[in-house]
């Protein structure tokens, strides 16, 4: 059997590498328009940082896994074609800022229709608005060379940083479709390593909607605990204690209750906004408002954090040095899309702070590019002032100690393990006084740092300043 996947990104690459690893008899061809990305997949330095991924790719490449830009060829040769291209939020036209931009999906469907002969199974791997398969089917049915198609929805639930484990041992695999035979073909692939009872099959629309719903529920939990973190700071309750107290209720459960500077990543916000747009489209105004609040709460949480930094540091951070620890949207990934760090840094830059940023996996070019985008409007325009501030007031360093040196404050924005094991006596000795720490991840040992002499402000933990405030 031959399969191909259009899109060699954070999902297409790892997912296909895992299928190739687990199914040596299936030939897997991953294609992308982005030559640099394909070159990286074929090199020792993969474009996606994921613990354990190197070994998975190395085992399958070149045995039965190929990365190339030969999209037409891969489609023509395959029995099954996964579409795993990006589906970002639209930035223009109708639905701008909410609806999913389905341009890339539609282009793939048209290309598949143009190139295919015989019968193919087309699998939606990208996260899509419910009923997208209808459009995909219509486009495919316009194929004029006799090709026929079945369309399946097989959304991906992996989380970055744990992608290999998630793919190896998923809670479930979801497959939606109309043709029993097509569904069985895909079930058989996953059944090579996943117990059949964990492979759920549904109709197309349930599958498409379940993906958006799962992300909405997950993000809602983060926004819920973050909302409570604000109340904790005002009242003297401790958000970690509250999370533990409620999480031991088996109906609530302990996962996804870690208060933070805000959720990030390429999908939570995009998928909820997409859900909101769909609800509005179907006239469900109250439902739309309900889910939109999850995103508003997240924006509030990010803003609240940078405002707390400014307020605590005597209402000005102008010309003060702030060491920023972490830029990725969570630990164990090099992905910065929608990272809370982007927005906190942007706010601090605009307050004229001098930032020294360290992230173990995100390169300088990426950080500078992201900051420019975070300071730009929807049309991609950045003001001269913002550009100059990024140029002159932001330094990227390669070590947490250098980031903290001579700083008035440090801000932990990603929960990388290595930040926890910094020698904080050394950090303290190198900083200005008072030495502020703003822990956006509740990562550091508060008591230990306080004993050293730091003034620590953590999410959902009151400090004298905030209780009085
Ligand atoms: N990043 C994640 O952890 C997860 C993402 N998803 C969903 O999976 C989809 C893909 O996400 P990512 O892999 O993160 O995106 P990505 O942006 O990392 O990768 C998408 C790739 O598709 C390529 N592409 C776009 N149009 C193409 C075309 N016509 N022909 C060939 N290549 C084309 C792009 O060049 C890019 O390399 C999205 O819908 C996302 O919502 C789902 C679960 C997890
Ligand atoms: O569709 C997607 O893209 C994926 O989105 C999330 O995965 P991911 O965004 O990679 O990472 P998460 O672990 O879900 O974290 C998302 C954000 O929430 C934050 N978070 C998470 C959990 C928590 O308790 N607190 C918290 O602040 C993280 O720091 C991160 O910024 C989902 O967990 C995946 O199931 C889904 O496939």
Automatic annotation (TrEMBL):
It catalyses: UDP-alpha-D-glucose + 2 NAD(+) + H2O = UDP-alpha-D-glucuronate + 2 NADH + 3 H(+). Pathway: Nucleotide-sugar biosynthesis; UDP-alpha-D-glucuronate biosynthesis; UDP-alpha-D-glucuronate from UDP-alpha-D-glucose: step 1/1. It comes from the Bacteria. NAD(+) binds at residues 7-12, 32, 37, 85-89, 126-127, 160, 267-270, 337. Keywords: NAD, Oxidoreductase. Residues 323-446 form the UDP-glucose/GDP-mannose dehydrogenase C-terminal domain. Its EC number is 1.1.1.22. GO terms for molecular function: NAD binding; UDP-glucose 6-dehydrogenase activity. GO terms for biological process: UDP-glucuronate biosynthetic process. Pfam families: UDPG_MGDP_dh, UDPG_MGDP_dh_C, UDPG_MGDP_dh_N. The keyword Oxidoreductase applies. Catalyzes the conversion of UDP-glucose into UDP-glucuronate, one of the precursors of teichuronic acid. Belongs to the UDP-glucose/GDP-mannose dehydrogenase family. PANTHER family: UDP-GLUCOSE 6-DEHYDROGENASE, UDP-GLUCOSE DEHYDROGENASE/UDP-MANNAC DEHYDROGENASE. This is UDP-glucose 6-dehydrogenase.
């Amino acid at each position: 059997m031959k399969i191909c996947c259009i899109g060699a990104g954070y999902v297409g690459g790892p997912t296909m590498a895992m299928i190739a690893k687990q199914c040596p008899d299936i030939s897997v061809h991953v294609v992308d328009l982005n030559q640099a990305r394909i070159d990286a997949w074929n090199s020792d330095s993969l474009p996606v940082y994921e613990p354990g991924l190197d070994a998975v790719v190395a085992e399958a490449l070149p045995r039965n896994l190929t990365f190339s830009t030969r999209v037409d060829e891969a489609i023509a040769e395959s029995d099954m074609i996964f579409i795993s291209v990006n589906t970002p939020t639209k930035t223009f036209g109708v639905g701008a800022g909410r609806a999913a931009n389905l341009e890339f999906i539609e282009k793939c469907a048209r290309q598949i229709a143009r190139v295919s002969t015989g019968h193919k199974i087309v699998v939606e791997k990208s996260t899509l608005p419910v009923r997208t398969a209808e459009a995909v089917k219509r486009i495919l049915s316009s194929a004029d060379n006799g090709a026929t198609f079945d369309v399946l929805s097989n959304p991906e639930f992996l989380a970055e940083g744990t992608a290999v484990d998630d793919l190896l041992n998923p809670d479930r695999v979801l497959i939606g479709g109309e043709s029993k035979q097509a569904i069985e073909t895909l079930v058989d692939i996953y059944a090579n390593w996943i117990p059949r009872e964990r492979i759920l099959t549904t109709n197309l629309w349930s599958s498409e909607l379940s993906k958006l719903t799962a992300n909405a529920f997950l993000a809602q939990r983060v926004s819920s605990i973050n909302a409570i973190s604000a109340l904790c700071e005002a009242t003297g309750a401790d958000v970690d204690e509250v999370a533990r107290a409620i999480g031991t209720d088996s109906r609530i459960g302990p996962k996804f209750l870690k208060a933070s500077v805000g959720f990030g990543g390429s999908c939570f916000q995009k998928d909820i906004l997409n859900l909101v747009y769909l609800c509005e489209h179907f006239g469900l105004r109250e439902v739309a408002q309900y889910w939109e609040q999850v995103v508003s709460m997240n924006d509030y949480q990010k803003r609240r954090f940078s405002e707390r930094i400014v307020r605590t540091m005597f209402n000005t951070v102008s010309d003060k040095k702030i060491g920023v620890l972490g830029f990725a949207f969570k630990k164990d990934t090099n992905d910065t899309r929608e990272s809370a760090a982007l927005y906190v840094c942007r706010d601090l830059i605009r307050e004229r702070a001098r930032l020294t940023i360290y992230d173990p996996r995100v390169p300088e070019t990426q950080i500078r590019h992201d900051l420019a985008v975070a300071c730009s409007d929807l049309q991609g325009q950045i003001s001269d002032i913002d550009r100059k501030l990024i140029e002159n007031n932001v330094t990227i360093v390669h070590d947490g100690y250098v980031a903290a040196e001579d700083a008035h404050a440090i801000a932990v924005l990603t929960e990388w393990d290595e930040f926890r094991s910094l020698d904080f006596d050394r950090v303290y000795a190198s900083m200005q006084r008072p030495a502020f720490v703003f822990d956006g991840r509740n990562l550091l040992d508060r008591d230990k740092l306080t004993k050293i002499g730091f003034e620590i402000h953590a999410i959902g933990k009151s400090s004298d300043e905030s209780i009085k405030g």
